[in-house]
Inverse folding.
């Protein structure tokens, strides 16, 4: 749980946005934003941040929990969410409200317009999605802790990752071990993709058994107190031929150049370019079919995005992934991913596994 | 994966709704609805069902998978979702579209209105949410399979559920065992709530160790090929006193009366009443703080709802839970939940555990 000084400073930053955006209050519906701004970790609710004490609206399941986790708010119980929000707006005399357009549904929006007829609604896209991008020390410590748990679990699962074992069984063991080691949950459905399956960036672990000569892509992470880790290791199973070494070498070079490009003030586009340039120059441009990275925190994917289209600029305290890849249908793929902290001097790698090509099994 | 005849009959049922609703096409965004109507199980996409062949819109990750899983559709790749949908509407000459208001976000809705200026939009609440309520034989078989896996896992975990073991460790073992036995995933975060924690209907398993004299509420389920199971067993740990027997007996009576009330043509409200009446008569009405049940299928909670406010009427082939409870702060709680199939003659219980009071550990 974040401490109260962090919470107040987050709410203050939100209030500064409020003044610039010309609305009297923000209606926050994204549960991760609510957790960030209050400490409340329930599965439903709404937060109203205006001039006064923030109002945290929850249903009957969560009044006790909200009171404990979010002492900086006034907790209000609702039976019907739209009615609860409309009543809180009217009580606060709020007539112009900013909201998260990627979260508010048409259904809830219609109900709110019906129940709070005087209120004008303004979508607030960019500012809010970036509010969590820069992490404070406690958040960084939580991400480190998540990384430590995940890496410990992979280390202790590693000897079971060998020819004859199927992808799904590896995923189950790894997730189980992360939880035994203290993870709230896995960060996402673990990817264990071997042989030709490793050529699919979003493969689901299946019944395929590892074979010598495979690449196996292991994309995994743990959640600790709400904070995610994210790392991808690609290993060669049994042996590595010259094609393995070549492809791995190009991706590793792309990964290292991107790491070097990370620095406060640099645009995310430039970091993407650093990785993509290496892969394009080697003739595999079309085989790198995704962005170079993303922010990591209360969500495993959050601002900033590191892609060719990204306008974001890196700041000190951001935690991001660097994860170039090359995917060759029929043969296999390589992705190399670290989670890094943006510091004054550049990137500090937080993830723990060596990214040199390793032969396992 | 559903067979193609089931898929066609589902799409036909949707088309019948289309004729009644006065729109030319439905835009389906709920991923479970998309899976139901096409077989496609990816994590993003959109489906357009009008007069011609349904159009399944997916991003670059999913074109191959969509082609394999959804042969009844025309698969169209999009780079930007709103643009893809707008283009498909304009290509089909569709000018009046129904949508799911609880799923469509204000952001996507605005983008669609901008990009498809001629199109009029109509929210379609009730009909669509109920389209999956009645299950066919294959779906029922998948739910049974999920139930069998979950029950097998609980049986083999049961001997570890004893005094001194903490809730969280039981949850981890049970979820691990379900996956080892073939589950895609747990149906939801397993609830293991012991002693005073069992008085919280939505408790999260924590570090509390089981003690003799506890109730332990185990609410768990498995997913098999997308279909969920849902069952709650409440056990007495070590011993059961007269208060345990009394509370358990009332909930069991409520559960049994609700089961007897289940029959095609009966309203969900009546089933809720049957359970609630028993608990109210015993003086614990305010301690039964949730509905009596809900539909189960591709979502663990889906139509119909069984509550005091529900307008839905039971039909043959619905699969629903019956799960009354009493929660006594400080002492503990009891919830007894079966998943049942609505048949001509009444409820057929699908879940496998005996619901007589059992002392374990």
């Amino acid at each position: 749980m974040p401490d109260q000084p962090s919470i107040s400073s987050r709410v203050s930053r939100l209030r500064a946005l409020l003044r610039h955006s010309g609305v009297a209050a923000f209606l926050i519906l994204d549960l991760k934003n609510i957790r960030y701004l209050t400490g409340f970790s329930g599965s439903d609710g709404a937060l109203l941040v205006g001039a006064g004490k923030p109002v945290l609206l929850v249903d009957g399941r969560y009044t006790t929990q909200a009171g404990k986790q979010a002492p900086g708010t006034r907790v209000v119980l609702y039976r019907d969410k739209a009615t609860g929000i409309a009543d809180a707006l009217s009580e606060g005399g709020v007539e112009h409200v900013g909201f998260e357009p990627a979260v508010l549904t048409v259904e809830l929006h219609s109900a709110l317009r019906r129940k709070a007829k005087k209120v004008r609604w303004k979508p607030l896209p960019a500012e809010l999605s970036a509010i969590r991008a820069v992490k404070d020390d406690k958040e960084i410590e939580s991400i480190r802790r998540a990384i430590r748990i995940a890496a410990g679990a992979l280390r202790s699962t590693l000897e079971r990752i060998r020819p004859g074992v199927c992808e799904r069984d590896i995923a189950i063991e790894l997730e189980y071990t992360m939880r035994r080691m203290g993870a709230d949950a896995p960060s996402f459905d673990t990817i264990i993709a071997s042989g030709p399956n490793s050529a699919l960036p979003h493969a689901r672990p299946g019944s395929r058994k590892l074979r010598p000569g495979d690449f196996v892509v292991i994309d995994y992470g743990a959640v600790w107190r709400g904070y995610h880790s994210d790392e991808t290791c690609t290993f060669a199973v049994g042996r590595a031929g010259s094609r393995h070494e070549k492809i791995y070498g190009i991706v590793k070079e792309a990964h290292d150049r991107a790491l070097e490009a990370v620095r406060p003030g640099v645009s995310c586009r430039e970091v993407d370019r650093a990785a993509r340039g290496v892969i394009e120059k080697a003739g595999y441009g079309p085989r790198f079919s995704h962005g170079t990275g993303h922010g990591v925190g209360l969500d495993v994917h959050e601002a900033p995005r590191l892609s060719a289209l990204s306008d974001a600029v890196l700041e000190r305290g951001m935690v991001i992934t660097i994860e170039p890849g090359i995917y060759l249908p029929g043969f296999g793929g390589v992705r190399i991913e670290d989670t890094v902290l943006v510091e004054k001097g550049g990137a500090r790698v937080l993830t723990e596994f060596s990214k040199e090509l390793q032969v396992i099994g």
In short: Chain B has two domains: 4-129, 137-360. The two ends of chain B are 40 Å apart (CA to CA). Residues 137-157 of chain B form the longest helix (21 residues). Residues 137-360 of chain B form a domain with the Creatine Amidinohydrolase fold (CATH 3.90.230.10).
